């Protein structure tokens, strides 16, 4: 077989909602990848895998460690529940595999840092947290536009994650594991702020080929929130609508909104506001290109779920990760940035719960007491 | 009183739906005009005038000829039913008044030509047909853009007039007087085609200060239509949905659509398509700047009536007409163009009824028989 | 003259940018008002008035107190620089005039309260602060929709005021008087939050005909900002981009953004987010209904200034104020609300400068020290 | 291998622009298909195939007849130049293969009818003309909405195909083979009219499982056009801007526009106008969800080519064709409809060239002479 048709042998861990999708993407929609194995301990997911994966030659495991030993396995996509992301990622790294891990790495900053440490000690392996929005073409065009200087210096970023209301109560129960609305929802928006506000690596580092761009440094975080539709969230210290503000050193501000009650569907949007212009991603959400002119007015439906909005981005994420592993180069989402995103999200969640603004110095140390948030590396 | 505060003494003839609006515009919203008189033979309109106009010092007449003799009267706005537009306009012209006449001048081309002849024999008086869309700011900006060359040479014009369905049956009865859907509705679109496709006057004429721009010359007209919601229209040779195509000499095409059944409201729109770009007026109709994000999607209401859409244009039309009379200059809507619009509309209506394409030579004579449409002047 | 044609005799104080517009609105575009007098001490404005107002019979004064004595004067529109709004409003009230005062009443809360006290001691006179956005049809439709329950309970309000960048440096100098970006720009957004979050008066009060709706009570304010384009603002403790968050008791949050550097023009927008839907006012700004399809894409121009966006609202504001004075009833913008708006804006400005979150108890007293912001009445 | 993983063995004939894309779609993006062979006589395309297809196990042929004999081949996707579509399709059918043929079947009606006859004599094979727009999700949602009765009875259809201007002159040379602008561009719009205006099969036929829906019957066609940017087209009897109107018996009208000079890119759009509402597909074209707020205004880029707009639809077309072959059932685009589309396009082209309206009786025979267009079957 010609070199260009060599395919990455990958496994997917966890076959829940997103895991099953990742499995399908690697199985059917990533030409250079070959889904060789999958792991799930869940009977229902197992049945799904028997029917939908096994016939295509995928080996199904009920033991994660066994799966890691699958003959020829090169990479793992970790899509289990958030609580085991870090542990599974570390095991895979230590077993010599490349890792694509669903976001967030963990709801716990220390756990994230362990993943980062593991990755650093295996520098030839690719480890990437799957911040899917970065692979959406509109966000990518906005990024190119930003770095080209089209809007001057990016100064303010506004970003929101708004879900359609799910009356099943699922997200209320899930709140005990999710880390809270900033960690679960706005983590994407935080990641975008870090992306659009990052600077290229300083001259010296760039020359040596060192990879990480310079992340903006947090100066303060503050947050407020309410439980408008699900009072039960309060018992987990969570809310269903939240506003968070992150101030960075060097004159940049990001502000976020998240909601669990958006009436027409999923509406995630971002504005990158520069000194000379503004880029708006998904200010006008739409499910396709159809508009209905009916007695109630002109009506446009919008995506109902995160996946409906970002399906193509997930497929692109799989393609890019595969290409980077096969061809070499840096993963496009730096792991330090993904750890920093959790750190900020956790701080926002704390600010929400305490009602206090949290202030940092340039080294990432808290000013005025508090020790819940460690310094940036 | 200072010269700049001198006000034009105007009367409004006919106080039906549009007449009452014109009266209000001249009374309250045209600073340099003074509504001094109004005429209506209709008891209901008369009662309205007693209550709403008389207290402000407006004299109400039940005899049109008497009104023309009102002391100091300088101008008349003719807003009666279409069938008497031409007659009243001619009387006013012959009485030495300036005239603003509602569109169309008549449903009969010969009658239109009589108005034109009267106007020509009183060259110091201003006579203008009220094609309100020309005074809409979006159409005006589009015109400036067109003449500036921003879209290259205007080549194709698409324009539509779509009314919200009126279940009262009014427009079915009215079809016997309206002249048909092209004369009643698309006349506006035809006027726009003549406007955007006209050329500046040839060098010689312009030097002598001769006014009329050069109108494009019709090469053919064809039309089709259906009665989708009001079969009763057929008895008047009319339809509720029509498509008409007008081919001009020198490589320009206008195509029109009109409908009586637009579900969300009034939707009149126009595209001016040039060799280097396209201008779209009201491709996205809206009643203000509000959008509702509700379970059915994102919803935008649109104007319900022609007046809701063009109220400001009517006020501007009154202002401009007043200024031209007081300050001198040419009326912005040439009367020959307004006659040509009727000629084209009548030809389209004939093409609709006969099912035949009607062809003209460069002098406006029919090719291949037919005599219903006279030559252009 | 019939009762319905009786016109309110009003004067305009200050003929700067907005004052001249108010004068024109009352002179030419408010049928039931008669502009009888105007005051300005400024030579340039005086020359304008001689040319544009005097010929229409308006008496021009260079002494405010003299103007108040103008024979038959009934009302004053205060449009001078902000620093004298309160003083002139109080003088007019004490002289028995109705007052329409430009926003804000003052940049100083105590001064605002004096205006409120004066108004309360003259209960038969109408005193209204001119929050123009409330008279914009889209905001009004949104209000009706909100009170009808269409979006459930209003919970989150996002609102922004973004000006086109003015390279003249005007707003840098003006920063020493303006009270800062929250007091100068976001005051409108704050007013909207108070409007959409207010509740009808409690049953008892409503029965007695007591007027004021129940304003939401502030729980905390926090703010951040940067000087991205005009570092000179820092000397006045001001910024050119700011984000502010206001938390109310009873589960409501408003968050604001203001900017002095919006590239295409003026973009003020508001989202009212309820438990069952969201209303967006001006999410898609537009200058009319024209779109250009040109090589760079599909382009839509937007208003360049606040007045281009809200001209019709200012005219409506004049009409409504006039009607309320002539016909009786409550002014639609409660004066207590307008004082509260300044109180919140000043607190946001303090939070911006100090970097501290400011917290209040239900009676409006500061929690945790501080005394700059007095209790709500 | 499990039944569900059995894959359709397909070949692609022609590896020009669209052929190469089809090859990629079947190779990498159609899980249930296996691209086993490809044919091209063109050296440049051959080189591309050696590099991009052969390494994945695809056999490359320079002889179409040889390719048809490829071991195990089940289906052929015909993507050669239009002039050989019909011939290759017929050969493949006669060789027992299923066929997916690029549009149009031919520029010659008689040739189309031969393909139809061949297909009818091999009723167990699937033969489908690739009208890609039918596989676009927005068009599909519109179709479901239409058949659900949401807009009442579909009455008027407006549809346009507008390409970005290609200054290379390619399409001028190509005009000698393309069949003209209606056959080359508007054929898609004509297909949509046939789709949205078709009725379900009559009761009797439906009971017997007979497949074809009832196509609307053409009553007249008329067309006009101009050469605005490429006068050279005239030598081939073609134009660069055309308007065509098709009247159907039973009260339906379709009108079309095509252009070769759309400034910002590709803009294909369709309105399906019913008695109770209107569906608009791509009234607001967009390349993704990004809007730029820059000094010139708010700008949105649009797709540059037909493929940028319809890439996903082509992939879906491949998927659906594959599923129908593997699982049984009817192809979603009836072959008789595809022949009828050519018949209408050819008639429009003739109307354009002759300047005459062409009229048909209910049996598809021309009324008033003419013999260029045969009767509908």
Topology:
The structure is a homotetramer of 377-residue chains.
Chain A: E1 8-13, H1 17-28, E2 33-39, H2 43-52, E3 59-61, H3 64-68, E4 75-78, H4 82-94, E5 98-102, H5 109-120, E6 127-130, H6 137-147, E7 154-164, H7 170-178, H8 181-184, H9 187-197, H10 203-207, E8 218-226, E9 241-248, E10 252-262, E11 269-274, E12 277-281, E13 290-294, E14 297-300, H11 306-327, H12 335-354, E15 358-360, E16 366-367
Parallel strand pairs in A: 1-2, 1-4, 2-3, 4-5, 5-6, 7-10
Antiparallel strand pairs in A: 7-11, 8-9, 8-15, 9-10, 11-12, 13-14, 15-16
Helix pairs in contact in A: 4-5, 5-12, 9-12
CATH architecture tag of the largest domain in chain A: 2-Layer Sandwich
Judged by helices, strands and strand pairing, the structural class of chain A is alpha/beta
Shape of chain A: globular
Distance between the termini of chain A: 44 Å
CATH topology of the largest domain in chain A: Dihydrodipicolinate Reductase, domain 2
- Biggest interface: chains and residue counts? A-C, 38 and 38 residues
Stretches of chain A where pLDDT is under 50 for at least 5 consecutive residues are: 370-377
The number of domains of chain A is: 2
Strand fraction of chain A equals 15-25%
> What is the number of helical segments of chain A per DSSP (H or I, 4+ residues)?
12
Question: What assembly state would you assign to the polypeptide chains in this entry?
Answer: homotetramer
Order of helices and strands of chain A: EHEHEHEHEHEHEHHHHEEEEEEEHHEE
Radius of gyration of chain A: 21 Å
Average the pLDDT over all residues of chain A and give the rounded result. 93
What's the total count of β strands of chain A? 16
Helix content of chain A: 25-40%
């Amino acid at each position: 077989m010609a070199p260009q048709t060599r395919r990455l042998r990958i496994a997917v861990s966890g076959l829940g909602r997103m895991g099953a999708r990742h499995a399908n993407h690697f199985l059917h929609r990533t030409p250079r990848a070959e889904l060789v194995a999958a792991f799930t301990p869940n009977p229902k997911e197992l049945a799904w895998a028997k029917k939908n994966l096994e016939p295509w030659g995928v080996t199904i495991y009920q033991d994660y460690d066994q799966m890691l030993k699958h003959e020829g396995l090169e990479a793992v996509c970790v899509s289990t529940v958030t609580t085991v992301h870090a542990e599974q990622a570390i095991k895979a790294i230590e077993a010599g595999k490349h890792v694509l891990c669903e976001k967030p790495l963990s709801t716990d900053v220390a756990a994230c840092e362990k993943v980062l440490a593991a990755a650093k000690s295996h520098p030839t392996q690719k480890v990437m947290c799957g911040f899917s929005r970065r692979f959406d073409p509109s966000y990518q065009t906005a990024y190119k536009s930003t770095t080209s200087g089209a809007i001057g210096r990016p100064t303010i970023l506004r970003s929101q994650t708004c879900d359609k209301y799910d009356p099943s109560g699922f997200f209320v129960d899930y709140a005990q594991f999710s880390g809270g609305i900033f960690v679960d929802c706005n983590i994407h928006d935080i990641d975008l702020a870090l992306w659009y506000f990052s600077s290229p690596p300083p001259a010296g580092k760039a020359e040596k080929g060192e990879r990480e761009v310079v992340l903006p440094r947090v100066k303060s975080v503050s947050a407020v929130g309410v439980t408008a539709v699900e009072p039960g969230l309060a018992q987990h210290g969570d809310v269903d609508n939240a506003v968070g503000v992150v101030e960075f050193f060097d004159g940049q501000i990001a502000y976020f909104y998240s909601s669990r009650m958006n009436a027409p569907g999923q509406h995630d949007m971002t504005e990158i506001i520069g000194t000379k212009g503004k880029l708006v991603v998904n200010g006008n959400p739409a499910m396709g290109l159809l508009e209905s002119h009916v007695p109630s007015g002109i009506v446009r439906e919008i995506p109902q779920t995160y996946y409906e909005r970002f399906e193509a981005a997930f497929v692109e994420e799989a393609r890019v990760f595969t290409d980077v592993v096969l061809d070499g180069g840096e993963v496009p989402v730096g792991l330090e940035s993904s750890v920093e995103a959790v750190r900020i999200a956790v701080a926002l969640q704390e600010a929400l719960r305490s009602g206090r603004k949290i202030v940092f110095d340039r080294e990432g140390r808290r000013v005025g007491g508090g020790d819940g948030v460690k310094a940036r590396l």
